[in-house]
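Job type: complex structure
Entries:
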Amino acid sequence: MNRKYRKTIISGNWKMNKTASQTKAFAEELKTILPKTKWCEVVLCVPYVNIPAALKAFRDTRVAIGAENLHAESSGAFTGEVSADMLKDLGVKYVIVGHSERRWYGGEDDLAVNRKVHAALSAGLHPIVCVGESLEQRNLGVTGELIALQVKTALSGVPADRMRRVVIAYEPIWAIGTGENARAEQANEVCQSIRTVVRKLYGARVARSVTILYGGSMNEQNAYELLAQPDVDGGLIGAASLDAEPFMAIINASNQGE
Ligand code: PEP
């Protein structure tokens, strides 16, 4: 992390977990142990149907609410979909774009991710853009090129002044939900390479200020070391965000450095 230049973000990703009542119960528990987290922004990305409950439960706190997906179009005949404007109107601040599960189950490719990034930005949301390689790709030695292509395509056409709202999350697919996190140096190496791509696209000032998260089996045991890396500016956390205590432990682990 480098809190002098960029915001630290600890974000949960609940995936398809918890009902609205469970969301309320989680919020009550987290609120009792959550200090004034001046050192980081705490975000919870929750299923669409739980957004109103989450917004209400966290109304009097500094916890920001995010969605886990959005549709690229602003309105129209897209049964079952949700637009960026709908999320913004509710009070949502962040939205995950291009999570590997959506790329896999939802067939989202880099171009679809790019359209969603534009939709989120146009509505005033902060997209958390996920990139990451599979184990096969890592073993083939193409991680660097692949991640660079994912980042460049996702950000294609995004002007520099909108980059202030973009968050990038490096999530190696082999580490998501497997209990096998990337080693701290591996995570930092890729996050640093993402910053280099951003520097080439937008220059040093934007690269220095963009928040780049690591995600993939981050938990209360490994968070401190991962978050101590200079180019890892926070975490996108699945399983360990489902209970208040481990999530709080990760929030506390981000309270380091300046
Ligand atoms: C995720 O889904 O973004 C994630 C990182 O999950 P987990 O922490 O469970 O690996």
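Summary: The pocket of phosphoenolpyruvate is lined by residues 13, 15, 171, 176-177, 215-218, 236-240 (CB under 6 Å). The domain at 9-253 is CATH 3.20.20.70 (TIM Barrel).
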